[in-house]
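Why does residue order matter? Because the sequence determines the fold. Keep that principle in mind as you read this record.
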Amino acid sequence: MPIRQRFGNWTGFVVHMGLEPLKPTISPQAKKASIRALKAKTQNRKANWTGNEHIDHNGYITIYAPKHPNTTQKGYMGKHRFVMSEHLSRPLKDGETVHHKDGNRKNNKIENLELWTTNHPSGQKVSDKIDWAIKFLKEYGYEINKI
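Structure:
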């Protein structure tokens, strides 16, 4: 019978045999390498930090705005999303995204940003789509005149 089935794991087998299991240790070389890697990572983070904003792993500038409704749990949000939210004078809704027209994620001027939405109707009947389109247009401030 395999050791894992009978004793759970190798440590269980060693204990069953009446021996003291070995405790894991880290070699001095591994400790030094770990400390060097941690320092390099921290310095990288500091290099991307400019006051209250930094560049995330996707290349977007993120800002710390803990009181804004569109932030993450840690209080950060994309600067492009913040700029668009301020321009609209409201938080972004679910399904709304902000697109950089020129593709440059660091160019967060309002002239370079477009509001996109991923919302679409789930039904396929024409009447369902028309109802959804009317609701969608009203939500964004358009008047609907029936013909």
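The first strand starts at residue 49 and ends at 50.
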